[in-house]
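Hello,

Our lab assistant flagged a job as stuck in the queue for most of the afternoon. It eventually completed. Since we weren't sure the result was trustworthy after the delay, we are filing this so someone can double-check. Below is the sequence as submitted and the structure that was eventually returned. Let us know if re-running is recommended.
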Amino acid sequence: MPRNTLNSYWERTTFLPKVNHKKSNILDYEDYLIKRWNEGEQSVKNLYKEIQEKGFKYKIRAVYELMKGYPKTIVETMLEIVKVKYYSSKQLSIWLGSFRKDWTDEVPKAYLTRLIDANPVIRKVRNAVLNFRRFMKDKTGEKLMTWCKNILNDEEEHIKGFAKGILSDYKAVFHGFESKWSNGPVEGQVNRLKTIKRQMYGRAIFQLLRKRVVITSKW
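-- returned structure --
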């Protein structure tokens, strides 16, 4: 308490008159507020405006104090929001480009089946991709030219660019289908060298890069 206030009380010879704060008549509107609350209007500001139009003359605090314990009936009865899981186009491409027997338990099999059945374009492209994979697996390069021609003659544009790329270097691709040899190990070592060089921010000279490769190989 400030010193001046204390001194003023000390010097008084009589008590200050009691101030009676005028109570609001908010209870007169309680039935209406409960009715509107149960109807779904749970904004105190909106309810305050409504009872103001009905003659309420006091501040909004009275409405807050009265309604702060009201149950949130609307929140309690809201329907549970169903979470929809989305898949990236990359993930869908991997799944759709693989055989059903290779689908693991993590793959949404029912979703993919509905997707394939509902979309003729996806179904057609998927069949073309799976046929291409069969040719690679079975080493049947003689079917490759027919496959490319069918793709180019089809009205769908989705993998025509892929077929054109094969025809532009057809001889090499054909031998890749027919030959038992593969440059996969070479490409793997090239990627390994690139990874090691990236770890040194691309500043590895040949001698240092060689040491890194040799040391890593010993492990």
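-- support follow-up --
The delay was a queue issue, not a problem with the job. The result is valid. The longest helix spans residues 120-138. Residues 89-178 form one domain.
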